[in-house]
Amino acid sequence: MIGQTLSHYLITSELGRGGMGVVYRARDQLLNRDVALKLMLDNVVNQRDRRARVLAEARAASALNHPGITTIYDVVESGEHLFIVMELVEGQTLRARLSSAGPLDARELARSVAQIAEALDAAHSHGVVHGDIKPENIVLQATAVPKLFDFGIARQRAAETVTLTRSNQEANETPRETIAGTVAYMPPEILRGEVGDSRSDLYSLGVVLFEVAAGHRPFLGPTITALMAQILHDPAPRLEGGGNIVPQELGRIVQKLLEKEPCARYQSARELQVDLTNLLRDLELGALLPAAVVGKRAVAVLPFKLLTPNPEDDYLGVALADAIINHLGGAGRSAGAADQHGEALREAGGRSAFGRARDECPRGGGRKHSEIRVAIARSRAGLERGGRNDAADRQVRFGNGGTFRFTG
Predict the structure, then answer these.
(1) Is 74 a catalytic residue?
(2) Superfamily (CATH) of domain 91-288
(3) Which of 132, 150, 201, 322 is catalytic?
(4) Using CB atoms within 10 A of its CB, is residue 232 exposed (0-12), middle (13-18) or buried (19+)?
(5) Which of 82, 177, 283, 351 has the most beta carbons within 10 angstroms of its beta carbon?
């Protein structure tokens, strides 16, 4: 086919072969751009039902427009040929990435799979299910942004794989790579012959997530029959086991994705994206924090707001918050360390906002000073009770009638 022209597409090279067609690099001679052209095999073209199903799926997928989904430009029937024209994506498949560099680290993994979940959410919202999520169908671009491809024919190919597998399986049959490579990512409901939905895609993505974190799939049956039995009946192994060092939250996410029953999984790709985005945020924050404080509870002290406005007392909102921060921070130090810290401040000529407020208070300073310390004690007591203050702890009243409250 190299050098031939189909419609207005000049085929320049072969990119790969699959179960339903051959993918070529081609030149769109009308728009002067390079595209990927998937030429369907004769056994698809010559069977009316298969041809009609592929056309219907491809046309539905052509309505999708998302940065994480390979765009379908055209579906063409030209004489005896049927082909799908797609966006040409430069990069390597996730399978190639795993083969060359091994498992992804937790942050890269969470970022990539969150982006895939976002793309799936866009497809599912249009009623389009991929049906064959696996590393071979995910391309990592040069920017490391993943892109899903084969929307439109992957679902049909996966369904035919199930039919072939269920009708020909033998107890001692070693799985052929092409068949086992698809069955390994199929959810239990599909293997039972039920109709899948968007949650079936999420199960498959869970298998991918497990594999890119651990370096192997969760189920590794030596035969197709054994593999299917494991997927249908065996509980999914925990990602944290087997010597894998992964965040506990990642293990929880994978476990939920690999639930046998769809109703026990994430109910939408959007839910999964939210959890992965939160995990990524925590991992990135953890990378920035000193090792001594990672995993420990933190308290945010916000400025106080004056409920009874008095310009003379405005500075106390910041001063009180600063005093609480210093007090709580000092509580974690030894007495010697606290003394050294205070001496260093004095030598540098530094003063806290609380110190400046005390010095600058024109009148009633002693009373305000003492009541601030009472407020500190009450606030700290509230924090020690579990990190929150009750209503009484949230307001501070001063001798001149001024009242402050927490703003957060």
Answers:
(1) no
(2) Transferase(Phosphotransferase) domain 1 (1.10.510.10)
(3) 132
(4) middle
(5) 82
